[in-house]
Amino acid sequence: MIELGVLLILISTLRCFLFTLKRISCLILEGLRTHEGYSIVTFPDSHCQISFDDYHLLITYLLKVPPLEETHKGYVLIIDRRMDKWSSVRTLFQFITSFFPNPLRVIFLLKPEGVLQRALEVGYRSFVDNYKYKVILCQNSLELRDFIAADRLTMDVGGLLKYNHLEWVQHRMDIERMKSSAAVIAESLSEFGRCLKETELPNDVETTERILEVQTGEHDAIKFG
């Protein structure tokens, strides 16, 4: 069983990560799947440069958001880099190669649109064509909707679903806050129970009553605090 001090450190670390998530646009919406039943993870075109460690934490957390029964078939990634660079595409692909713990069925890439990026595309196509996972290049959101229905896509990639990243992160923070509070209370009660078992009551009534009053106060502090 995790000690209370360690649990509090883990909770603090998770909260720091969720604050970091506010600036990293990557999302997975519970219940959102393709017609084949694959869960959808979207990397919006956010221009946010992240380290591999941030990516690792992000994916580890996000893939735990949906219920297990929703994810057993695998995932589909939608990567929007229309306003970004091919170098950004390559970096993210390298991250995915290094770490993606669940089955990955296909990646839909909305490729960079800039004039310079179109010129550079030839140099990157061999990297994409020989990639570890299946990649489908999409010129625009209309092409993406040939593969995934609009009612299963967020509006930023041409779909019908409204999505606000900050609201989603706040929702996740609220959920984690409730879960962490419950975990702390459960651990505190467990610790209190161990304390009761280990307490040897004296023979005289007055001292016994005093000890029980202290322990009752501790229990109430856990229950109502």
Summarize, please.
The protein is built from 8 helices and 5 strands; from the N terminus they run αββααβαβαβααα. It is an alpha/beta fold and about 220 residues long.
List keywords for this structure.
225 residues, alpha/beta, Phosphatidylinositol Transfer Protein Sec14p, five-stranded mixed sheet, CRAL-TRIO_dom, CRAL-TRIO_dom_sf, guanyl-nucleotide exchange factor activity, guanine-nucleotide releasing factor
General description of the model:
The chain is an alpha/beta fold and about 220 residues long. It has two domains: about 5-165, CRAL-TRIO lipid binding domain (Phosphatidylinositol Transfer Protein Sec14p, 3-Layer(aba) Sandwich); about 175-225, no CATH class. It is about 55% helix and about 15% strand. The chain has eight helices and five strands. It has a five-stranded mixed β-sheet. Helix 7 (about 165-200) runs antiparallel to helix 8. The chain is globular. The two termini are about 20 Å apart.
**How is the main sheet built?**
5 strands, mixed
Instruction: Note the overall shape.
Output: globular
Strand content: 5-15%
Strand order, sheet with most strands: 1-2-3-4-5
SS element count, helices: 8
Ends apart, CA distance between termini: 22 Å
Structural class: alpha/beta
CATH class of the largest domain, named Alpha Beta
Total count of strands: 5
Radius of gyration: 25 Å
In CATH, the architecture of the largest domain is 3-Layer(aba) Sandwich
